[in-house]
Each structure stands twice: as C-alpha cells, then as structure tokens.
Specification:
CATH architecture: 3-Layer(aba) Sandwich
Strand order of the largest sheet: 3-2-1-4
Largest sheet: 4 strands, parallel
Strand content: 5-15%
CATH class: Alpha Beta
Length: about 270
C-alpha cells in the first residue's frame, strides 16, 4: 500500500471498537430485541461483526448461522465454527443447497450458463438473508449485516441479499481497516488475511470482480469520497491508472440505487 493509503486509512482501533460496541448495544436496546443473529461465512467481515456483537451484548445474545452450499470451501466452514467456539456463541447450521436448487428448478435457471450465473449468484445471497430473517423473527433478534464501506461505495453487494440487515456496524470502515480491526479483536490471522469471497458460485473471488485489489482500492475510495479529490489527482497520488479510478466512479454512480430506499412519487 502507498504512503497515501497508510495515512488515509489510519485508525484508532480502541476508539473504533468502543464506538461500534456502543452503537450495537444502543440499537438493540432501543428496539427491544433479545439479541442479534449473524451469518458466519468464515470471512473477515462476518467474523469482525460477530466479535463486536459479543463485546456489546455478551455471547448468550448472539446467534451465528452457517449456511454452506455444495461449493462452499470446507476451510471456510471450519473457520466459522472455530470462531464461534472462540466467541462462545450458539450456532445453527442450515445447508442451503437444496433451497437454491429448488428455486432454480422452478425458475428454469441454469447457473452454469454465462448469462445466468450472476442472477443465480444473487439468489444464493437472498436465500441466506431469508434464513437469517427466519431466525430473527423466531427469536426476536436483529439481523446484523457485515458489509463494509469499500463494498458499499462500489455497489459490491446483493440488493436485498447481503445488503439487507437491521444494523450495519462496520459499514463505515474500509476493507483494509476491517482486516486490521480483526487482528485487534483477536480474530485468527487466517481469517483476517483471507482473500475476500462472497462464495456465490464455485471459485468465486472478490478481487476478480472489483476494479482494484482492496490494498489499492481503499486509498482511491478515501481520496475520491472523503477528500473529494479529482480522478486525475487520485491517479497521480495513489499511483493507480486513471481509467481504473474512473471505473471506480462509474461503479459508484451505477450502484446508487442500492444505497437508498426505492424511489416513490412523494
């Protein structure tokens, strides 16, 4: 990461932890919920969200749900289980493979076809959220979303899928900040440093679909949206091709509908 990136993304992790823990506790208390439910994927975002919820509410008020498919890497589920054990939280395991396949069958969808892969991928994300809201409604819990600011700004999430939640405790943090916060919270290093993947189809990797790797993307996002610098300035200061910076802006503009309520007449 460039010097620009290190300076722009510097964070007081003790202060950030206190702020987020207070936010979670206040949100849950104000709604009268019994606790929260978190989808545990074995990735860094959901692991950090779960760890912060335990600090805020105690382990007895946090439920983790594991939702593997036939193509979920076994290591991810192992990491999710080990994290849950480390945190001392209850878990539920719901294999969603049959649910997705039933939907694809009714829709006549073939996830293996190039033109149908992304619609099918979004189905998996929405199935996960259906499961989480089932447990939330059943046990008077709030659904905790694990999206971060890097993903939010470029629209790298599924609308009404992983973008749906009752609270988003780390949405204001960039991906690289979330990784460092994971280490600060004692999340295992293999999770903190694991390449990001929504695991919505076999071999799915985030960095195959975003304009730049997170180490290069985050300084660009800070410069564009926090410092309000021009694409030309950002390209020069971050050492990133101008076309890549412009692609980041295009993705932000195209995904605006994902970050707001649907438009209405009034």
């Amino acid at each position: 990461m460039t010097t620009l990136g290190r300076d722009a993304l510097r964070l007081d992790f003790d202060e950030a932890t206190v702020e987020i823990v207070g936010f979670i506790r206040k949100t849950v208390e104000e709604t009268g919920a019994a606790g929260v439910v978190v989808g545990l994927s074995g990735g860094v975002d959901s692991s950090v969200a779960a760890a912060l919820c335990v600090r805020a509410l105690g382990r007895d008020r946090v439920l983790g749900v594991l939702m593997p498919t036939s193509f979920t890497p076994p290591r991810d589920m192992e990491d999710a289980r080990e994290l849950a054990t480390q945190l001392g939280i209850r878990t539920e395991l719901v294999n969603i493979q049959d649910i997705g396949e039933a939907l694809f069958g009714k829709l006549g969808c073939d996830p293996g076809k190039p033109g149908e892969r992304m619609p099918a991928a979004n189905v998996w994300a929405r199935v996960r959220m259906v499961v989480l809201y089932y447990y939330a409604n059943l046990r008077n819990l709030l659904v905790v979303g694990a999206g971060d600011r890097s993903e939010a700004l470029i629209g790298y999430f599924t609308k009404h899928g992983d973008g749906a939640a009752d609270l988003l405790p780390i949405r204001h943090l960039y991906k690289t900040q979330v990784r460092e916060l994971a280490r600060h919270l004692g999340v295992p290093e293999r999770i903190a440093s694991k390449p990001s993947s929504p695991q919505l189809y076999p071999g799915h990797r985030a960095e195959d679909e975003i304009p730049l790797g997170y180490e290069r993307l985050d300084p660009v996002l800070v410069s564009l949206f926090d410092r309000r610098q021009s694409p030309e300035q950002v390209s020069r200061l971050a050492g990133v091709p101008l076309e890549a910076v412009r692609e980041v802006l295009r993705r932000f503009e195209r995904s605006g509908h994902k970050r707001v309520y649907p438009p209405t007449v009034r």
